[in-house]
């Protein structure tokens, strides 16, 4: 089954259960200052869960474009390292707004997986929130999942590598206990079952999360009950596709086979010669072209602040990975057309904006190619000293003069087992910001035109220091 058919089957299944099919919202959330990018299917329904907004339906189903590249749900550092994480992915979801609750949600999920998708029951594991006896009993007694494949997991406070059965959209907003379904890819793949010390492998992969939305968390961390208990679920389309296409990782599914081949071709043509087709760098490029294109298509352009800076960081990371494979001239923007061919039918906005997206990314790439060689030389020299940490002054110079976002520098260093002195880097950034503010005040005092906006730096600072919710 192709991924497009899987998406369709999911939506049709929930439509047959009384759900209205709702279109994906853009990756840029319209009116939510707590979010930089859409990170889950429930985002567009946040106000419905909170009781501020009413829809003509109480059940909905979507395939939502999501970006997780910073903040509470941040997978940027996982791309190229795990078989299951993307910065951009599609989240399939079904939602109940005060309609059905735990019983029906669990039974729908089980029926879809085992009867429609026909997954072998013995390969499925489930986790429930530690204290949620009700969910445990539904899985065990009603559905019949044996106790040895049900794991109780508490609140791990969003720890990146630990299962966490209390789902939160961000630091504030709708949240609640959840139950997750895992698929066992078998003993050929490394990793342990959920909740075990080696759960951070790619053997037992979380495919679907069912959240029992019951609270709204405020800025002080206080939980307020929602008007009605609701359901919000999310299943990664790429992950369920891997299972159904009998491959062990997201990068082996139909969509990525095409994008990886296009990435290799583009890198080879730009100087890579015949680069290693299994290089993790190609996966990073194939992943990042999706995140960058969808972001541009939804209205963002690369800049030094906020969303534009996230986009710039992702694009430059991808370009650096191409450079690592030998590319010496722009290649990244040429991948837009391969992506449009692959996903343009499901997302017509890609087709409508193909040319603009190509041009925007080309401009960014042209700019970075002007400085990347010199920047890499400086970084290589610093790495060549054998130091275990790159000093903050070098990282700052790379950032300030060569356009290397600090996470890009850290990405190169990580490949060599080296870290970056980010404390010193941040101190230098603060000093620069302070100087810009002083200069601004001075100019204003003299009645001169003020050209540098301090708010520009706030966005920047936010991203690097408190990593605003993405
Ligand atoms: P993980 O623990 O694997 O990082 P998660 O618990 O952070 O996933 P949820 O917030 O529960 O993910 O999102 C719902 C579903 O979306 C997951 O069960 C998974 O199938 C999918 N998903 C989450 N993050 C990613 C990602 N970065 N790339 C692809 N799919 C993802
Ligand atoms: Mg995660
Ligand atoms: Mg998880
Ligand atoms: Mg989860």
From TrEMBL:
Cofactor needs: Zn(2+)
Catalyses which reaction(s): tRNA(Ala) + L-alanine + ATP = L-alanyl-tRNA(Ala) + AMP + diphosphate
Keyword annotations from UniProtKB, A to Z: Aminoacyl-tRNA synthetase, ATP-binding, Coiled coil, Cytoplasm, Ligase, Metal-binding, Nucleotide-binding, Protein biosynthesis, RNA-binding, tRNA-binding, Zinc
Keyword Zinc among UniProt keywords: yes
Name this protein carries in UniProt: Alanine--tRNA ligase
Role, per record: Catalyzes the attachment of alanine to tRNA(Ala) in a two-step reaction: alanine is first activated by ATP to form Ala-AMP and then transferred to the acceptor end of tRNA(Ala). Also edits incorrectly charged Ser-tRNA(Ala) and Gly-tRNA(Ala) via its editing domain.
EC number: 6.1.1.7
UniProt note: domains: Consists of three domains; the N-terminal catalytic domain, the editing domain and the C-terminal C-Ala domain. The editing domain removes incorrectly charged amino acids, while the C-Ala domain, along with tRNA(Ala), serves as a bridge to cooperatively bring together the editing and aminoacylation centers thus stimulating deacylation of misacylated tRNAs.
Biological source species: Noviherbaspirillum album
Entry note: cofactor: Binds 1 zinc ion per subunit.
Molecular function GO terms recorded: alanine-tRNA ligase activity
Start and end residues of each Alanyl-transfer RNA synthetases family profile domain: 1-470
Compartment(s) of residence: Cytoplasm
Family to which this protein belongs: Belongs to the class-II aminoacyl-tRNA synthetase family.
């Amino acid at each position: 089954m192709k991924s497009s058919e899987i998406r369709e089957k999911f939506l049709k299944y929930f439509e047959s259960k009384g759900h209205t099919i709702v279109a994906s919202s853009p990756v840029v959330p319209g009116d939510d200052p707590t979010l930089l990018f859409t990170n889950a299917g429930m985002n567009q329904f946040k106000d419905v869960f909170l009781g501020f907004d009413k829809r003509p339906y109480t059940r909905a189903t979507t395939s939502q474009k999501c970006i997780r590249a910073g903040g509470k749900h941040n997978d940027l550092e996982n791309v190229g390292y795990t078989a299951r994480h993307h910065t951009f992915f599609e989240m399939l979801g079904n939602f109940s707004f005060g309609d059905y609750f735990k019983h029906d949600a669990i039974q729908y999920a089980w029926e879809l997986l085992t009867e429609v998708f026909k997954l072998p029951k013995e390969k499925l594991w489930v986790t429930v929130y530690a204290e949620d006896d009700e969910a445990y009993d539904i899985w065990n007694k009603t559905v019949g999942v044996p106790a040895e494949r049900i794991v109780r997991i508490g609140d791990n406070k969003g720890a990146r590598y630990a299962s966490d059965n209390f789902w939160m959209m961000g630091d504030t907003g709708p949240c609640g206990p959840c139950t997750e379904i895992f698929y066992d890819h078998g003993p050929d793949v490394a990793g342990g079952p959920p909740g075990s010390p080696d759960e951070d492998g790619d053997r037992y992969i979380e495919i679907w999360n069912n959240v029992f939305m019951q609270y709204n968390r405020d800025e002080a961390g206080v939980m307020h009950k929602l008007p009605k208990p609701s359901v919000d679920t999310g299943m990664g389309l790429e992950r369920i596709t891997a299972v159904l296409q009998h491959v062990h990782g997201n990068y082996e599914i139909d969509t990525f086979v095409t994008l990886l081949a296009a990435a290799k071709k583009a890198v080879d043509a730009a100087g890579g010669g015949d680069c290693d087709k299994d290089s993790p760098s190609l996966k990073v490029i194939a992943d990042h072209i999706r995140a960058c294109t969808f972001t541009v298509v939804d209205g963002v352009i690369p800049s030094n602040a906020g969303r534009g800076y996230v986009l710039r960081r992702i694009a430059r990371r991808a370009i650096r990975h191409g450079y690592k494979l030998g590319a010496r001239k722009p290649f990244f923007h040429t991948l837009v057309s391969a992506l449009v061919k692959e996903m343009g039918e499901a997302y017509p906005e890609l087709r409508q904006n193909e040319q603009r997206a190509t041009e925007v990314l080309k401009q960014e790439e042209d700019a970075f190619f002007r400085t990347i060689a010199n920047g890499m030389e400086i970084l290589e020299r610093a790495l060549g000293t054998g130091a275990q940490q790159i000093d903050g002054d070098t990282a700052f110079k790379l950032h300030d003069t060569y356009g290397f976002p600090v996470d890009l520098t850290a990405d190169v260093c990580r490949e060599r087992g080296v870290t970056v002195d980010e404390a010193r880097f941040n101190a230098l950034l603060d000093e620069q910001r302070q100087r810009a503010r002083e200069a601004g005040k001075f100019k204003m005092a003299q009645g001169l035109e003020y050209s540098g906006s301090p708010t520009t730096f706030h966005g920047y600072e936010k991203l690097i220091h408190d990593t605003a919710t993405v």
